[in-house]
Amino acid sequence: MARRGENIYKRKDGRWEGRYIKGRQKSGKIRYGYIYGYKYSEVKQQLILMKYQNQASNNKNLLPYEGQLVDWTNYWLETFVRPKVKSSTYASYKNKMDVHVLSKIGSIKLQKLKQVDIDSLLKEMDKTLKASSIRSIISVLKNCLSKALSLNLLTENPCIGVELPKPKRKTVQALSIKDQAKLVKEINTSQKFFSIMLALQTGLRIGEICGLKWEDIDFENNTLFVNRTVLRIQTEDKSGRKTEIIEVTPKSNNSQRKIPIVESLKKQLLELQKVSTSDYVISNKHKALEPRTIAYRFQIIRKKIGLENFSFHSLRHTFATRCLEAGGNIATISSLLGHSSTKMTLDCYTNSFFTEERKLVEKLEFI
């Protein structure tokens, strides 16, 4: 039996069938088009768009698009986003839209969506989210609506012109030399904390550490290559929403890089390799260790030695700060970190650079 007014039926073979009018034969008899799928929601999304496209091709005065924002968003994600981006990017887009946008304004008809609705959404998000997160979410929504605009489903993009919150400059948290020495002393007691040493000595992101394989290390030339990263992303299957671990290429071309390693780190790596039974440097039996396990181990050590309010990512900042203190230039540090530009590095480490600038200016007093 069809769901009321939708022309969508459940077939005997378990699939859903959607029917729409394609046109009429010369005799005047209606010609129907059909859409099939195993999920009702998928058939509904495609049916709405096919009805619109068919109406557009047969009528110069386009009829209003019937779908809600949620219908268009899901179609956009599946048709235009998923085929072109990494699975991690798709999962990120979908999560942003599902959690922060569609749960609030998804039921609004696409063509009735106004800037005032976006403004209300912004006010709601501003209560709980950081400015940078809000800007990221609105960016995804804006792209989604821009595609609808390009297909003449909208006359304007309601995201254009909204006032976004200004992001606050991040304060980089790096360990002092004293705290770093205390941390190193503690992690040297067990190889299960070696991921912390890797972060301190190379500046690798947590996912890059998880994805590091022995084949990525050139011991002869004391060089480490970053070729992959491990992430936990949200997925959806028949049992509902869940998460899974995936292995992908690094987040950008600059993130795929080579990093020199010092002799002391090389020695520790060789010792670890002797007892390793995995392709991965940091592993759980034969598999890569997942990011949240590494983060959890760091929190255990951090609390034990009394370091407050530091995350695993602080180790990456610590590496960059030590490089800066050793006289490293901005281009070199940016390359080691895999940043997309030197501007990004400057924005992250403004305070650290100011300390070095002060030392430089003070030297001029004796000239």
Automatic annotation (TrEMBL):
Official protein name in the record: Amino transferase
Domain Core-binding (CB): 67-149
CDD domains, per database record: INT_ICEBs1_C_like (cd01189)
Record key words, sorted: DNA integration, DNA recombination, DNA-binding, Transferase
Key word DNA-binding present: yes
SUPFAM superfamilies linked to this entry: DNA breaking-rejoining enzymes
UniProt domain Tyr recombinase: residue ranges: 170-362
Pfam families with a match to the protein in the record: Phage_int_SAM_3 (PF14659), Phage_integrase (PF00589)
GO molecular function, one term: transferase activity
Annotated InterPro entries: CB (IPR044068), DNA_brk_join_enz (IPR011010), Integrase-like_cat_sf (IPR013762), Integrase_catalytic (IPR002104), Integrase_recombinase_N (IPR010998), Integrase_SAM-like_N (IPR004107), Tyrosine_recombinase_XerCD (IPR050090)
Gene3D superfamilies per the UniProt record, alphabetical: 1.10.150.130, Intergrase catalytic core
Family listed: Belongs to the 'phage' integrase family.
GO biological process: one example: DNA integration
